[in-house]
Structure formats: structure tokens, C-alpha cells
Amino acid sequence: MQEPFILGITGASGAIYAHRLLRHLKDLNVEVHLVITEHGKQVVAYEGQQDLFSLATKVHRNDDMFAPIASGSFRHRGMIIAPCTMATLGKIANGIGDTLLARAADVCLKERRKLIVVPRETPMHAIHFQNQKTLSDLGAIVLPANPSFYLKPQSIDDLVDTVLARVLDHLGLDHPVSHRWRDMGHP
Fold first, then answer.
1. What's the Cα-to-Cα distance from 103 to each of 64, 74, 86, 111, 128, rounded to whole Å?
2. Class of 5-143 per CATH?
3. Is the distance from CB of 145 to CB of 117 less than 8 angstroms?
4. Which of 61, 82, 65, 64 is nearest to 5 (CA)?
5. Residue-range domain boundaries for the chain
6. Using an 8 Å Cβ cutoff, are 163 and 119 in contact?
7. 3 Cβ neighbours under 8 A, 6+ residues apart
8. Alpha carbon separation from 74 to 32, 107, 129 (Å, rounded)
9. CA 111 to CA 2: how far, in whole Å?
10. pTM greater than 0.85
């Protein structure tokens, strides 16, 4: 079996991004280790996405600093944080690994593993931008949850998938999640 991915979920609105990403990764037969913040659990419940837990291969407690994903010796193909709050993004950008989610992301940076953060916040101020620049400078991919419309999405799932297709692309996974621009006719 191939090495797993890690998915972190924070308290930003947009639990549907995490749920659909887990579903796509399961469809691709990919192992996923999940870690979620306490606020993330509240948002997942409030937004009606509770069944996402059953899609993960392994769920880790955010306070379990002895979990394998806290160590650089744990082999994996990368980590996605979707949705990512600006508070969590700021912690990671400033090397604060006080939770399992933040520590696992910090490990990705120090081990030069793929880290994709999907912030879902608007509007933003200068500190938000600076923290995103810091993460980008450290090698992370900052992929805001900004859906595209040129594929003419017909549902919320279609709209969410325009973002997740980009995430899957950056993970290096072949997927059928959405059409590519070359597949589109010109106006």
C-alpha cells in the first residue's frame, strides 16, 4: 500500500471541503489519517458533515502528541488542512506546534514534505497575508477555497470540487473530479 496522506480540519466554515476531499481520496483508494480541532468538530456537526469521520482510515485526537503523525519518522505523502482557519495558519507560519494538527504541519515543513493549506476566510488583513506569504516561502502551498465558475457548476458539490480538483492535482493524484480547461470549448 502507498504511504498515506494527513488531513487536518479546523474550525473554519466549509466542512464540505473536508468531507468531499475524504470521499474523493477514498474513491481513489488512498489511506488518510485525520486530525480535527475541537472547533472543527463543532463546525462539522453544525454544517451536517459528521459522517466524514467514517471516510478516514485513522482518526487522531488533536491533543495526542504521541500520535505517529507528530513525528518526522512517520512516512506520508503530504498533509492538507481544509478548511484552515487563519488562527491555525498563523500558528503554523510562526512555528507554534502546540496541537497535533499544528505539529503535524510543522513536521511537513521541517521534513520538506508537501503541505497544502486551504484557507476559507474573507476578508483578510495584512497579518493574514503575511502569514500566507511566510508559509509559501517555507514551501507550503496556499490554495484558498476560491471556486471557479468556467466549468458551469450545477450544484454546490460541483462548485466545491473545482477547489478540490486543484488540491488533488497538487497531491499528484490522477482523478476524475472535474474537467480541465483543455477539455472546454472556447467561447
1. 10, 13, 16, 12, 20
2. alpha beta
3. no
4. 82
5. 5-143
6. no
7. 31, 75, 76, 77
8. 13, 10, 31
9. 19
10. yes
Tell me if 9 sits within 8 A of 18, measured CB to CB.
yes
Using the predicted structure, report yes or no on whether residue 5 has a pLDDT greater than 80. yes
Model confidence pLDDT, tens digit, residues 51-94:
999 999 999 999 999 999 999 999 999 999 999 999 999 999 99
Question: Which among 74, 66, 60, 59 has a CA at the least distance from the CA of 111?
Answer: 74
Which residues, 6+ apart, have CB-to-CB distance to 77 below 8 Å? Answer: 2, 3, 4, 5, 113, 114, 171, 172
Rounded (5°) CA angle 126-168-170: 60
Name residue 174's amino acid. Answer: D
Whether pLDDT at 24 is above 70: yes
pLDDT of 150: 86
Query: pLDDT band at residue 187, thresholds of 50, 70 and 90?
Result: low
CA distances from 41 to 49, 114, 164 (A): 10, 24, 21
Taking the C-alpha atoms of residue 179 and residue 151, their distance in angstroms, rounded to an integer, is 7
C-alpha to C-alpha distance for 145 and 104, rounded to whole angstroms:
21
Question: What is the pLDDT at residue 138?
Answer: 98
